[in-house]
Amino acid sequence: MIGRRRLSLGEAEAAVEQAVVDFERLGEHAAAFQGHDVGFCCLGTTRARAGADGFVRVDRDYVAQAAELARAGGCKHFVLQSSRGANAQSRFLYLRVKGEVENLVQAVGFDHCTILRPAVLLCKRQESRPMEWIAQQFLGTVALLFPTAYSVPVEMVARAMVACALQPGKGRVKVLENGAIHELGKAVPQQGT
User: What's domain 2-186's architecture?
Assistant: First the structure.
């Protein structure tokens, strides 16, 4: 696991090797990217937290550089969490950056590249995001009637990422929209079942 800080993983912590890297000097940490068959990338921040330039640097530049290092280190399948509506031509910064990074990651030349485009992620966050919390409350209720339309629990995205790594399918690039994420996420049992 490569990240900006060490995470507390409870019982799983003993089974996971964590490499803490400085993403401003990512090239100095190339060894952390060596020898992995599959790479999962969920790196991101918010414009509110990092500013517009910081958001672009984290969500596009860091991700693209990590993909390049992973490929150079032998990674054959890269699984990227992007966003519904990602489009490099969008007038909205968030969607444009997500579209740009999708294009950059695809250009790296992995044997397989899977891009997941989830809708609103339903999760509990440590930091306060009042508008996101309101949206999650509303969409959590809507999800009872239309479970795949507007949102997806983060656990479902994680299970879908695992499923596509276990069975990459045909073709070099696969893009999974929110409904497909729900379907694929059901293929991997929840922990404890």
Answer: 3-Layer(aba) Sandwich (3.40)
Nearest to 67 by CA among 106, 17, 98: 106
The two three-digit tokens of residue 116, written as one number = 């997941």
Q: Where are the domains of the chain?
A: 2-186
Question: How far is 56 from 173, CA to CA, in rounded Å?
Answer: 23
Q: What is the distance between the alpha carbons of residues 187 and 163, in angstroms, rounded to a whole number?
A: 7
List, for residues 30-76, the tens digit of each pLDDT value.
999 999 999 999 999 888 888 999 999 999 999 999 999 999 999 99
**What does the alpha-carbon distance between residue 109 and residue 32 come to, in Å, rounded to a whole number?**
20
Query: Is-above-0.70 flag for pTM?
Result: yes
Q: Cite the active site residues.
A: 94, 98
